[in-house]
Design goal:
This protein is of the alpha/beta class. It contains ten helices and ten strands. Helix 4 links the parallel strand 3 and strand 4. Helix 6 runs parallel beside helix 8. The longest helix has 19 residues.
């Protein structure tokens, strides 16, 4: 079972920005990952080496997610179409399969979900994922539920990235989030967050929220390791841990 993705923000940011995200592809692939998540915020400010990164990813046959720190809905509740267009164009060059952004300022009675539907109809072969971020608006369970319910009502093909740790930053109840948002989720970001709001490496032993969340979803759901991986050579150990846990769950339900 290969369903673990490694985002580039799991590694030392100086190492990533100095050596480039393409330099990590070999390590991620040889660690047994299913895919890679390229991070827009860690790319150079001027010339984006998307073609170079794509060639390296293609060499190893990795599934590609493109994550960009933009909000789907602007502060005036309107679709952030210009920025979305730029990100989708970059994703095409990168050869990405999924594009991940934050919700932003969606409001059911002010935001036109049909506009998002028309935009996505032009984006062939790319799946939009909306993630719960760490903000009070974009990480709010009710806002996200209203957005996804509206999307379903209008047949807008958008899925959710469920970040297991961001709920603590936005002061939301994780169990409530699972209960209300599970039908829309296709991608899990795994992280362990301390009481002092520090993201730390996941641990198999002990009772941890990320483990409870992961057990609420199918064993084969795609998962990302979004926590500090130090040293980077430990990537394969974390991938193996999640793979083993998923296989054990699958065996239990047979």
């Amino acid at each position: 079972m290969k369903n673990v993705i490694v985002p580039l923000n799991a590694f030392d940011s100086n190492d990533v920005t100095t050596n480039g995200q393409a330099s990590f592809v070999k390590l991620i692939a040889e660690s047994g990952a299913y895919g890679i998540e390229i991070r827009r915020e860690l790319l150079p400010a001027v010339v984006l080496p998307l073609g170079k990164i794509k060639r390296e990813i293609d060499r190893y046959g990795l599934f590609t997610v493109y994550s960009a720190p933009i909000e789907c809905w602007k502060e005036d509740y309107q679709l952030n179409e210009d920025q979305l267009s730029n990100i989708f164009q970059e994703a095409v060059i990168l050869g990405a399969h999924w594009v991940k952004v934050s919700l932003g300022h969606f409001q059911q009675d002010k935001s036109n979900i049909a506009e998002l539907g028309r935009f996505l109809a032009k984006q062939k072969g790319l799946q939009l994922l909306v993630e719960n971020d760490q903000t009070p608006h974009g990480g709010n369970v009710q806002h996200l539920q209203a957005f996804f319910e509206s999307a379903v009502d209008q047949n807008v093909p958008v899925k959710m990235t469920f970040d297991t740790g961001n709920w603590y930053y936005s002061k939301q109840d994780v169990e409530e989030a699972v209960q209300k948002l599970a039908p829309y989720v296709s991608y899990l970001h795994l992280k362990q967050v301390t009481e002092t709001l520090e993201t730390v490496p996941i641990e198999r032993e002990g009772e941890h929220s990320w483990k409870q969340v992961m057990s609420s979803f199918p064993a084969d759901i795609v998962k990302a390791l979004e926590f500090p991986i130090v040293p980077k050579e430990k990537t394969k150990d974390y991938i193996q841990m999640i793979t083993d846990m998923s296989r054990e769950r699958e065996a239990l339900v047979r």
